[in-house]
Amino acid sequence: MEERKTFDQIKVGDVACFSKTITESDIYLFAGITGDLNPVHVNVEFARKTIFGRQVAHGMLTAGLISAVIGMKLPGPGAVYLGQTLKFCLPVFPGDTITAEVEVIEKIAAKNRLRLRTTCFNQEGKAVVEGEALVMVGKEVY
């Protein structure tokens, strides 16, 4: 587990990342957990007939990688996720390696909050998800 950072240890411009290759199993597991059985995600034959031409990962599966960065790296364990905006820029396919990147763009000292730029990139360096998050961080390590 990553070391937890306090609000005072975090600086504007700090960046952290997490990478994962998305598999068909990830897609089916996410579908089962969430109940989102849209055939573009879980039916390969159906997906072949769509504008994507093949199976596509759920957008929220990809966006979930941002949560891994926030919860485990920046700010890390104990962070409280307060909000997130998302824009889905490109589809993610099985076999794509996605890197979720979080960058501190503002510190709100009065409330121990951070505003974060959140971006997921594919293996070609293209943004597949973009957004901003608001998180609360403790002043002390507990």
UniProtKB/TrEMBL annotation:
A GO biological process held by the record: fatty acid biosynthetic process
Q: Say yes or no: keyword Lyase present.
A: yes
The record lists the organism as Desulfofundulus kuznetsovii (strain DSM 6115 / VKM B-1805 / 17)
SUPFAM superfamilies given in the database record: Thioesterase/thiol ester dehydrase-isomerase
What keywords are assigned to this protein? Lyase
**An MF annotation (GO) of this entry:** (3R)-hydroxyacyl-[acyl-carrier-protein] dehydratase activity
CDD domains attached to this UniProt entry:
R_hydratase
InterPro entries, alphabetically?
HotDog_dom_sf (IPR029069), MaoC-like_dom (IPR002539), UPF0336/Enoyl-CoA_hydratase (IPR050965)
Q: What is this protein called?
A: MaoC domain protein dehydratase
